[in-house]
Design goal:
heterotrimer, A: 997 residues, Ubiquitin-like (UB roll), FAD/NAD(P)-binding domain, seven-stranded mixed β-sheet, 22% helix, 28% strand, C: alpha+beta, Gyrase A, domain 2, Alpha-Beta Plaits, 2 domains, five-stranded antiparallel β-sheet, 11 strands, GcvT/YgfZ/DmdA (chain A), Sarcosine oxidase subunit alpha (chain A)
């Protein structure tokens, strides 16, 4: 048994010891302890160093609002997490923890020199200190700021844990399982609603866990709690603990982060570490309670200084006394009870110091009965002790005058500056707050979502008040959902309602300018900093916040915001509501990236679409490239080949004999109906009326702005049925665009669109031997040049599979595209590959496809066009049906901007040296000797080494390019400037002789 | 994440099933050739960009696939109504009155 | 990157005490599109009344028809009945314009059964499953992927998935299958 553990007390299991380490030393705690409670039980309060001044710090709270006791936790390789709250992390055998922000050790930290230099680090010191000289920015200031910035140390290894996510729909979500939340859940569940009750703590109960003395409905609080939870479970309430509501979004969507394994010694491998719940609730009940405020005075941050309510929690929930000799400084009744509980447990209460001249008489009487000295109408003006508090200095305040000091020795100091409702989630909804003068705090005002606020969250103190408000608000939610509820009430004995006053920094007889009176512990912001910010011209609370960083730490000002506001308002000479609060934003508490990522890592990172032939490519050592969501075979290297060599070989063999290519990713849309041809006429630039069934045509699709959106070969299968192909990346976009026109502009057309991209596997055969390979496999169709000329389409059977056969070429060679139902894609590929061996068939990938098409000057939409290219710019004016009455984009082609001189036009480029290959994206200038910045007239869109042309070739968009054939342009590169000549865009077989084989 | 009522499915569904489609009630002119350059420019590019109730299009892309219209307050992100494509603009004053009645604040 | 999953082999993909995920054998699938006035004639030709409400299903023998949009249905049938469907529709096309397009190979179907089948759906589908009655189906989304979700029983679902998106969804379902068993 450790020195500060109270035998038999609390909810920890006294017969289940747990050992863990902190900074290398082994400590004993109990099952149910947090790191903080276990260390305090061992007499350890010093748990970290502060961020800016490296001041020694211990836990000031017992929950997730803790700003000081941030530790690193480790569970083997890769499982290190910085900035974990020691007050939240549960212990298990073997847990390794470490303090932060210290070097070389927690007890002796060199960084603490900052504390001596604190006058340099006042509000806005970044802005003042790092202004000049300008040359210091890169070399001195930035490295300094970067070295000093950041809390804890980032993990360096990949996170081996898994994370999960789930959607949840519920009628009523109750946030917070304290008395108000429990009661609200009960009311909603009894009405037969789907109810979800969540709490960030390891067990439900909230305040009840810290107040076992209360008797609810005649039962001791913990007995009542146990039976209440059983009742909720019986009613089907989903109770989730270790689950934080991190954000409250539109229309009652709440993000919940559930921690599943951090408290376990040996989690199951299949259990994710955390799970993000995206909850949609018809009604939300916020029962998050209130947070205790510290008092602001010099030295209020020493280890051993703690919120009184937290000390009460450590005692009653964890069975831990925070010290042997304790002084209480308070402005609120609640701290008195903490003192009484500790006194009963054996801690000597040196004194209760109340800032109020006349505290609650009943409490004073109880203190007297316990022999506790009371100082009423006093202020605290300082503390002593380096690594742990040794004494507190107090002074009588008489009519505003601070009288002579006296010093009280202690090993712990409990403070309480009153309570403030936890309204973070409510604020996420843009619900407004109003200042309540009586309780000196903000309370919820205008509600914007379907939510209720219950209990201390709306300023009701005491268990009975919270409980009965919970029943009432639960009933209100039930009523809002159209059901009836009885409003139940319960009476609570030994309840501890109370009241208090609120302060700015406490009055002092010492130099206030030298006081280290902390408001924001985590960011080391003092009362002096806030006043300085106001003196230096900050008027808006948002400016004060940013100038001082008050409330900007990872605790988001849970403890500091109201104290900060009180001080800023005082300095501004305004009332609190005129100054207002800063904005709370999600997440409520720091949340791991893993929780947000969920399943989306490794295999689940994102969708990778693969064709039916992909597995063959993988087995045959293809190198892949991503194309939109697809992965496509890029090239097929043979032993010893790099990409360049493989692509040259693939190009050569395809043009020489036969290549095969997996074109399954091409988008495909089936257009069917009596108005199919009319629809085609309206959508595409080309005329379709005279295209006979069995024939295909290159189609060009524009937006109504006249710019190229997509292209592809389109076959007419019958009068009323077209088979459109789109670019791989454009498939979904094109279908969406077509549906848009069809549904909203031309709903009268009798035509329907169906995506068939994935219905078909598509194999392209190209090369002089394409027909020789294919013909023996085709049944029901003569594919001779006479019977099935270039740009034909037919339904037939290929190798026994039903097929749609296109005669089409994207390479300039004799070409066919065989479409078979997807499940047969790989079988057909293997059949053709085997039979093609006698023609030295060469499987090729997307890179070779790109080279072969560029040699023919065929554009790739999105590479040679960029969303500002018209058909005329691209040299595809031939595809525009000039006699059509209308098509999408037609009108825009006559807009002045689109017919103006000097538009960028697609041209060919050949480098003058015949060997330099241009960089795609390289900028083009007319005069290389002009001063920088040069006038850029265009850029290279496509560039390859061309085996067929025997030299590098390129396509480029150049201002007025079509009128500049034969002219010289320059491409400045980092190491040299390359000369090139503008040419046409066709580099190979301009007569198309090879198509006619 | 918003909840959106699809007027075709008649269900109120998660925003994840929908895609945004720009401002509503901008019909493509019957005879584009009759339009002046300025008129065509306005049709293509000029939008109201309102602060407040905005008539806009959505598509139930992962659902019934239909484009439909909505009135959404761009300040509060609240939908005032949704209605089928081709239906007339609803009366904004009536919508705002209805919305005020539904306001959860008390 | 998405793991490779062989879509040519029907059978159990993942199984735990919580849930079983299985790939179903191929069936004939058609997308049927038609305007409201034509629905009567099509129903007659097919011998099944086309359901008029989005999400509702019509069934006769082994044939199922699901209404996915105001003018859109998917017909699911045994492969040997595909010819009957195409013939029936072709016969009335001239007087009853519509679009019948085969999509048998566009999609694969995964069946999810077991005590936690609904929970498994919730790892990727944002819909409230309590609003999906048994016997109906909805086109919706699963982890960003369009899917048709059929509810065949309280804890019995089918997911129709486009072929190339299926491995991503299946891999997630496999992960969820193990996760749910551990709860």
């Amino acid at each position: 048994m450790t020195a500060f553990r109270v035998p038999g007390r609390g909810r920890v299991l006294h017969n289940r010891p747990v050992s863990f380490t902190f900074d290398g030393d082994t400590y004993q705690g109990l099952e149910g302890d947090t790191v903080a409670s276990a260390l305090i039980a061992n007499g350890v309060h010093l748990m970290g160093r502060s961020f800016k001044y490296h001041r020694p710090r211990g836990p000031i709270a017992a929950g997730s609002e803790e700003p000081n006791a941030l530790i690193g936790t480790r569970r083997g390789k890769g499982r290190f997490e910085p900035n974990t709250r020691a007050t939240v992390q549960e212990i298990w055998n073997g847990l390794e923890t470490n303090s932060q922000n210290k070097y070389p050790s927690l007890k002796f930290d060199i960084g603490a020199i900052n504390d001596r230099l604190y006058m340099l680090f006042s509000a806005g010191f970044y802005y003042k200190t790092f202004m000049w000289p300008r040359s210091f920015w890169d070399k001195v200031y930035e490295p300094f700021i970067r070295a000093a910035a950041g809390l804890g140390v980032s993990p360096t290894e990949p996170d081996p844990d898994n994370y999960a996510s789930r959607y949840l729909h519920t009628d009523v979500l109750v946030v917070g399982a304290g008395p108000a939340g429990l009661a609200a859940a009960r009311a909603a569940a009894e009405a037969g609603l789907r109810v979800t009750l969540v709490d960030e703590n390891a067990e439900p109960g909230g305040t009840l866990l810290s107040e076992p003395q209360a008797k609810i409905d005649g039962k001791p609080a913990w007995d009542w709690l146990e039976s209440e939870i059983d009742a909720l479970i019986d009613l089907g309430v989903r109770i989730m603990t270790r689950t934080t509501a991190i954000g409250y979004y539109h229309q009652n969507m709440i993000g919940l982060c559930q921690k599943l394994t951090d408290h376990l010694e040996k989690p199951a491998a299949s259990t994710p570490r955390e799970r993000m719940w995206r909850v949609r609730a018809k009604q939300v009940i916020l029962a998050q309670g209130a947070l205790e405020k510290p008092l602001v005075f010099d030295g209020n941050d020493r280890p051993g200084v703690m919120l009184a309510g937290s000390a009460q929690t450590y005692l009653n929930r964890y069975g831990v006394r925070v010290g042997n000799n304790t002084v209480v400084v308070t402005s609120h009744d609640s701290a008195w009870y903490a003192a009484f509980d500790l006194a009963s447990a054996g801690t000597r209460i040196e004194a209760i110091v109340d800032t109020r001249p006349a505290p609650n008489a009943d409490l004073v009487k109880q203190a007297a009965a316990r022999g506790i000295t009371v100082f009423a109408g006093y202020t605290a003006t300082g503390t002593s002790g380096r690594l742990r508090i040794k004494s507190v200095r107090i002074n009588k305040v008489d009519n505003g005058r601070v009288m002579a000091a006296q010093t009280l020795a202690c090993d712990s100091l409990l403070v309480c500056g009153g309570w403030t409702p936890s309204l973070h989630l409510f604020s996420h909804t843009k619900g407004t707050l109003k200042w309540d003068d009586q309780s000196q705090t903000f309370l919820p005002d205008r509600i914007t979502e379907d939510c209720q606020i219950a209990g201390a969250g709306r300023g009701l103190w005491g268990i009975e008040a919270a409980l009965n408000d919970g029943f009432a608000m639960g009933a209100a939610a039930v009523k809002a959902l159209g059901k009836t509820a009885n409003i139940k009430t319960l009476s609570v004995a030994d309840d501890r309602p109370g009241s208090g006053t609120s302060h700015t920094e406490l009055p002092t007889d010492l130099d206030a300018g030298k006081a280290r009176a902390f408001v924001d512990y985590q960011n080391d912001v003092t009362a002096k900093d806030l006043r300085l910010a106001v003196r230096e011209g900050m008027r808006s609370i948002e400016h004060v916040k940013r100038y001082t960083t008050n409330g900007m730490a990872t605790d988001q000002g849970k403890m500091s915001n109201i104290n900060g506001l009180n001080i800023a308002a005082d300095a501004l000479g305004k009332k609190q509501p005129e100054v207002g609060l800063t904005t709370f934003r999600p997440p409520y508490t720091p949340t791991t990236f893993g929780a947000f990522v969920g399943y989306h890592k490794g295999d689940h990172f994102e969708v990778t679409r693969k064709t039916p032939i992909d597995s063959w490519a993988e087995e045959n050592r293809a190198v892949f490239e991503p194309v939109s969501l697809w992965r496509r075979a890029w090239y097929f290297p043979k032993d010893g080949e790099d990409m360049d060599a493989a692509v040259r070989r693939e190009c050569r063999e395809t043009r020489k004999s036969l290549g095969m290519f997996d074109a399954s990713t091409l988008g495909k849309i089936e257009v069917v109906g009596p108005d199919a041809v009319e629809f085609m006429n309206r959508m595409y630039t080309n005329p379709w009326t005279k295209l006979a069934p069995g024939r295909t045509r290159y189609g060009l699709l524009l937006g109504d702005d006249g710019y190229i959106r997509d292209d592809g070969v389109i076959g007419r299968l019958s009068d009323d049925r077209f088979h459109i192909t789109t670019t791989t990346g454009g498939a979904a976009r094109v279908l969406n665009m077509m549906e848009d026109y069809l549904q909203t502009e031309w709903p009268d057309l009798k035509v329907w669109l169906t995506s068939t991209t994935e219905q078909w596997a598509t194999i392209a055969l190209n090369g002089p031997n394409a027909r020789n390979l294919l013909a023996p496999f085709v049944e029901g169709l003569d594919i001779s040049d006479e019977a099935f000329p270039h740009m034909s389409i037919a339904e037939c059977s290929v190798a026994g599979f039903p097929a749609r056969l296109f005669r089409v070429s994207f390479t300039g060679e004799l070409g066919f595209e065989v479409n078979v139902p997807a499940r047969h894609g790989r079988a057909l590929w293997e059949t053709l590959f085997a039979a093609g061996q006698k023609y030295d068939i060469c499987p090729y990938g997307t890179e070779t496809m790109h080279v072969l098409r560029a040699e023919k000057g065929f554009i790739i939409v999105g590479q040679d066009t960029d969303g500002t290219v018209t058909p005329y710019d691209a040299g595809a004016g031939w595809a525009v049906g000039k006699n059509k009455p209308d098509f999408v984009g037609m009108r825009a082609l006559n807009r002045p901007d689109l017919t103006a001189e000097g538009r960028k036009q697609l041209v060919g480029l050949l480098t003058d040296d015949g060997v330099s290959k241009l960089e795609e994206g390289a900028q083009i200038v007319l005069d290389p000797n002009q001063p920088i910045p040069m006038k850029m007239v265009g850029h290279v869109t496509s560039s390859y080494h061309s085996d067929a042309a025997g030299r590098p070739i390129a396509l480029a968009l150049i201002e007025g390019g079509h009128g500049k054939t034969g002219e010289t342009v320059y491409i400045p590169m980092p190491d040299r400037t390359i000369r090139a000549t503008i040419t046409g865009t066709v580099f190979y077989d301009p007569e198309n002789a090879r198509l006619k084989l | 994440m918003l909840l959106i009522h699809c007027p075709y499915c008649d269900e109120t569904l998660p925003e994840l099933e929908f895609t945004y489609g720009g401002e509503a009630h901008i019909a493509r002119p019957e005879n584009p050739a009759d339009k002046t350059d300025d008129e065509w420019r306005d049709f293509l590019f000029i939008r109201t960009n309102v602060k407040g109730p905005h008539f806009e299009r959505w598509r139930h892309a992962h659902g019934c696939g239909r484009f439909f219209n909505a009135v959404r307050d761009t300040v509060s992100d609240r939908f005032l109504t949704t209605y089928k494509a081709g239906e007339p603009r609803p009366d904004l004053a009536v919508l705002l009155e209805d919305a005020a009645k539904k306001e959860p604040s008390k | 990157m998405t793991a490779h999953i062989d879509l040519s082999k029907a059978g159990i993909l993942a199984e735990s005490s919580a849930v079983r995920v299985a790939l179903l054998p191929p069936v004939a699938r058609f997308s049927l599109r038609a305007a409201t006035p034509e629905q009567k004639a099509l129903s007659k030709a097919l011998g099944i009344t086309l359901p008029a409400k989005i999400g509702q299903c019509g069934r006769k023998g082994d044939i199922e028809i699901i209404c996915l949009g105001p003018d859109e249905w998917t017909i699911i049938a045994p492969e040997d009945q595909a010819g009957m469907i195409t013939d029936a529709c072709a016969a009335i096309y001239a007087k009853t314009p519509h679009s019948l397009t085969e999509i048998s190979d566009r999609e694969v179907t995964v069946r999810i059964t077991g005590p936690k089948a609904s929970d498994l759906i919730t790892i990727g589908c944002p819909r409230d499953l309590d609003q999906l009655p048994v016997g109906e189906a909805r086109r919706t989304v699963f982890d960003g992927v369009t899917t048709v979700l059929w509810r065949d029983g309280d804890q019995d679902y089918r997911l129709d998935l486009w072929r190339s998106f299926a491995p991503h969804v299946i891999a997630l379902l496999e992960t969820g299958c193990g996760e749910l068993a551990g709860e």
